[in-house]
Amino acid sequence: MSGERRLADKTGVCRTTKVPVLRYRNQIFQVSEIQRSKGKPKDCGTLRERAKGYKRVWVIEVIHQSDDLLVVNKPPNVALLADRSGAPNFWDEIKAALAPRKAYLVHRLDKGTSGVLMVALNQRTQRTLTRAFQQRRIGKYYLAWVVGRLQAPGTVKIDLPLRPGRKSRFRVAGPRDQIHRRGNTWQLRQPPPADAPGAASETRVRTLRSHDQRTLLLARPITGRTHQLRVHLSWIGHPIVGDNLYGRPDSPEQQNPRLQLHCHRMRVPGFGCFAAPTTKDWAPPA
Asked: Is 281 domain-assigned?
């Protein structure tokens, strides 16, 4: 059983979306195909996409589905939400696939990040999950390849406040030369004043293995600040491989075709634990 939706951009390019029924765990289904159409935009809908006659098929891997919750494996290098470019985004594809059923986003992943993405299928579940995120009751576990060898036994704590920086970036709310490691904790030598800008931010990381001058980490953000993992790891001297925003400019490590950050697992009270396999482009960097 399936349905179709037709949407168009300003140029008259229509997207025909075939929507299969989502019934089975681990089902993989084809979401959409963009193709040239003779129809006028007003005949096809209002979703705008910068699609110039090319075909594009996105495959969404379903990790879990119930009456309340859909969990999918987001691919890397795909924007979750619409941006200024007008390019297709993952959230619109999910909503089109589920239509006419409603979908509610409860958390986000950066464009370059792959892995577990949860979608509430009703407002009750949305409220429950939003509250759980706010109360930090959801366990979030990421895999990250970082530059250099992070030599530390056990779990390392990164306790560095964050604040907005320049050009859509974030930064530690303190001088870089004030960051130091005491035991297994990275922190500022002098705590910032109480009225200083910045939000308390905590990340815990554990080394899984090393490969040449790279380290594979299991990272758990305790707080949920924007770009938290990327900023914390960069400011302690171990930027994520493929991070052209927070990594060292023009360095070989940042020429990787993708950001080597993957949301591997989420533990959600009352719903279960959901894990996403890594994609084919996830491998020890050369």
From this structure: no
